[in-house]
Each structure stands twice: as C-alpha cells, then as structure tokens.
C-alpha cells in the first residue's frame, strides 16, 4: 500500500493540508503512521478524504461524518448506518447533471472568520479558496455583494444558537429513543428488513422537530421585528 506525506496527500486528494489537519483533530480522519516526527498516510486515508469531501458537498456536517466513521470502526452494518443516517439527516435533493456551483467566499483565507468556519465544519479551504459546505447557506451567500457580512451573520447565529440547538436535539433524540424502546423494546438494533420502518419513525420525529423549531423561530422573529426598528419591513 502506498504511503504519502502530508503535502503529497493534499496534492493527490485536492484537500488542503490545513483541512487534513482539522479533519484529523476532529476525528474524521484516522491517525497516520508516525516515524519519528514524520506522519505517513496511506490509500485508506485517501479514501477517507474522498468520502469526507463528497459527504460535505451533500450537506452532511463534520459531526455526522465523524459519527459515521466511528460506527464503521465499531463494526456496525454499513447499510443500516446509511439508512438511519439518511433518515436523520433528511432527504437530499436530486443531484443535477452538472456539479452545482460552489459558493466561493470573497474573504481573507487567513482571517479569524474563516478559521472559525472551518473549525465548525461550515467551510473548507482548498488552494487558498474558501467555500461553504452547506448548500442552503451557499445559495444565499453566493448572490450577496458582501460575503464578509454574511459570514459574520452565519458565525453569530451559529455560535449563539449552538448550545440551545444541541439541547433541543438531545431532547428530540431522547424522545425518539423512548418511542423506539416503547415500540421495539430497550436496546433494540434494527435487523435485516427492519431498517425502513425504523428510518420512517426517525424521519417523522426529525421532520416534526424541524417544523416546530422553524415555526417558533419565524413567529419570534416576526414579534421582534414588529416591536423594533425593522417593524416597517415585517411584510418583506
């Protein structure tokens, strides 16, 4: 099996050394073999990087990808993992015949904002080019005339909501676990042929959670806009 140093792996995979280090630190990439102070990567790491890149482009977060690899390391069935993961993460839009245009950010690649985006898994840096990994965010930012303003908005919302969203997600997952245990028994693991039924239950809980949060957020925003300086723009 071929082995690569960091710069060689970056050149072959198209992933910058900075992102490779970030993936390794977040547990997405397996540790390299070390000889003295030199790290050596192999074809398995190259395959991991290709998978990470594809999943990020489809809208998966770095946390979900890390969990995916961890499940595989633990020997879980790949088909079951993919079935449940798809239910949890939502249905992806059909891929167009051509690769969608990436939202290349017109910002300083060495800025603190970019560093934070990459650390949160919201962007990646390749060849000194910064692109967002989330298609919905990318679609909005790419039509903006001030990318730095939008980036700061993304970071402000992400950092402000991270704790609350995590608590909501934990509550939703706990409710889902209770529903699964009530229906199938505690400690249940889907068997062959049962993945679709469990995935449907997961999908319903996920969609309900997103619908409730979206409804409440929109309602609260309308209230704040109506009572503040933006009240005249409430109908926009």
TrEMBL record:
SUPFAM superfamilies registered for this protein in UniProt: Putative DNA-binding domain (SSF46955)
PROSITE patterns reported in the protein's UniProt record: HTH_MERR_2
Keywords of the record: DNA-binding
Gene Ontology MF, one: DNA-binding transcription factor activity
Residue ranges of domain HTH merR-type in the record: 1-71
One Pfam family matching this protein: MerR_1
Gene3D superfamilies: 1.10.1660.10
InterPro entries reported for this sequence: DNA-bd_dom_put_sf, MerR-type_HTH_dom, MerR_fam
UniProt cross-references to PANTHER family, sorted A to Z: HTH MERR-TYPE DOMAIN-CONTAINING PROTEIN (PTHR30204:SF93), REDOX-CYCLING DRUG-SENSING TRANSCRIPTIONAL ACTIVATOR SOXR (PTHR30204)
Protein name: MerR family transcriptional regulator
Organism: Mycolicibacterium agri (Mycobacterium agri)
């Amino acid at each position: 099996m071929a082995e690569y140093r960091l710069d060689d792996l970056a050149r072959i995979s198209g992933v910058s050394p900075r992102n490779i280090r970030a993936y390794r630190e977040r547990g997405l990439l397996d540790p390299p073999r070390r000889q003295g102070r030199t790290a050596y990567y192999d074809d398995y790491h190259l395959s991991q990087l290709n998978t990470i890149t594809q999943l990020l482009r489809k809208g998966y977060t770095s946390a979900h990808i890390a969990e995916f690899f961890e499940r595989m390391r633990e020997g879980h069935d790949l088909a079951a993992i993919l079935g449940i993961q798809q239910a949890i993460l939502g249905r992806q839009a059909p891929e167009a015949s051509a690769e969608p245009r990436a939202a290349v950010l017109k910002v300083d690649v060495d800025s603190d904002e970019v560093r934070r985006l990459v650390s949160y898994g919201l962007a990646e840096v390749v060849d000194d080019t910064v692109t967002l990994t989330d298609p919905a965010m990318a679609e909005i930012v790419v039509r903006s005339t001030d990318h730095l303003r939008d980036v700061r908005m993304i970071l402000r919302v992400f950092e402000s909501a991270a704790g609350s969203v995590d608590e909501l997600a934990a509550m939703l997952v706990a409710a889902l676990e209770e529903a699964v245990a009530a229906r199938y028994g505690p400690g249940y693991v889907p068997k062959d042929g049962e993945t679709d039924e469990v995935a449907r239950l997961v999908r319903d809980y996920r969609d309900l959670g997103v619908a409730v949060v979206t409804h409440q957020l929109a309602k609260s925003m309308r209230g704040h806009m109506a009572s503040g300086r933006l009240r005249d723009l409430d109908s926009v």
